[in-house]
Amino acid sequence: MPGDRKKILVLFAHPAQERSEVNKPLFTACLQHCDVTAIDLYREYPTFHINIDKEQQRLKEHDVLIFMFPLYWYSTPAILKQWQDLVLEYGFAYGADGHALKGKTFLCAATAGGSETAYQKEGYNHFSIRELLQPLEQTASLTGMNYLAPFVLFSSRNAVEEDRVNAHVEQFRHLLTALADNTLDIEAASSMPVLPANISDLINAHPHD
User: Fold this and answer.
1) What are phi and psi of 195, to 5 degrees?
2) What are the residue boundaries of the structural domains of the chain, listed by start?
3) Across residues 78-98, what is the average pLDDT?
4) Lowest-pLDDT choice from 40-44, 120-124, 189-193
5) 196-207 burial, b if ≥16 CB within 10 A, otherwise e?
6) Is the dihedral of CA 157, 111, 197, 131 positive or negative?
7) What is the pLDDT of residues 59-80, one digit of tens each?
8) Which of the given ranges, 48-62, 122-136, 151-165, 188-202, has the highest pLDDT on average?
């Protein structure tokens, strides 16, 4: 029903948290949000032995799935791949009887050390962030989830010195609330290369179906 609050599951993956300047405050914002279940995968599974039944139940109980991570070699940290390989099973996430994720919303909240101009065809990395994350976009397609453009902080290595972290965290809080309130313009958010720095541009006045 329109107006029903959405439950958000955030899976946080950072293999070097002692050096994290952006992801840790983002994760703290998740822990403080009443509509969010925030899981630190490296803390929960230090030996990579994923509890498949537990993770599948979490997915069933939530409407929105967010992967939060620093971009490592143009992809996710290893534990998120392990999680996908084990949890998104045939018959659960895809296949003839695999409809558990159908209709849910999925996005990535990522940080990238390089600048936004570096992530384009003519740039240093030759591909955009959305292009590099296409395996996750196809995973969303296969499992019937609505894939949103990634929420990205570029030049994250300089974010503290340039005093950009607090504003980014605040925008992430707005994004979480809009997802929970069901007021985010999903169609617009799905069509962009990355979500805008000002999330208010994507928020509708009223909840939608």
Assistant:
1) -70, 150
2) 8-202
3) 95
4) 120-124
5) eeebeebbeeeb
6) positive
7) 999 999 999 999 888 889 999 9
8) 48-62
d(CA 30, CA 94): 28
What topology does CATH give the domain 8-202? Answer: Rossmann fold (3.40.50)
What pTM, to 2 d.p., does this model score?
0.91
Distance from C-alpha of 192 to C-alpha of 200, rounded to nearest angstrom: 15
Give me the residues paired with residue 70 across strands: 111
Side-chain-facing half-sphere of 148: CA atoms under 13 Å? 28
- Reported for 139-144, long-range contacts at CB under 8 A and 24+ positions apart, including other chains, are 139/84, 139/88, 140/106, 142/93, 142/94, 143/88, 143/93, 143/94, 143/98, 143/101, 143/102, 144/99, 144/101, 144/102, 144/103, 144/104
Token readout for 133 is 């994350």
